[in-house]
Amino acid sequence: MWNTLKIEGIVKGPLALGWNCGLLESDGTVRAEVQGRRCKEKARGNVRGFSLLEVMVALAILATAFTAVLKLHSDAMDMVIAGRTHTQGAELAQYKLTEIELAGLEGLALQSGEFGEIAPQYAWDVTVEPTPLESWSKVTVTVNNIHLRSGDEFRLTAYLLKSKPDEEKDEEKKEAPKQE
To answer: Domain count of the chain?
Structure first.
């Protein structure tokens, strides 16, 4: 059960040959308890480590996994940016459509432009198309980010009255109180 090895030099106290395989005796001999393959190899003096091939395969696996994780992170960041751009485009398109509704289609002076200080990196474009109903118009507001590639745009379409009929305008004038 015990193998004895002679060690040269002065060593005192317990000696771990790896995984507590032995003890150093006072006369310099090592009493090694053989408990497993590693202890047996340590006792015989032919301890093996990992081969270069095993290390290279392990590094290749780690590099592949790390590359996949970086790709996932990059894709996630792209989706966050696209979502933010799409959300801001929707808000700005609604803002512009509200401006058009308040001013009326007759008050629409420009067909395109930029948002200025509100969102300097975004531009807008408005198209007004006729519909089969004479008093209605199809209004499409397109918002896109100037710095991103084309195709990343947001479109909002609404149907608006061209103007109030003349009868309704006359009724509003009659109902409005006169200011003196």
So the answer is: 2
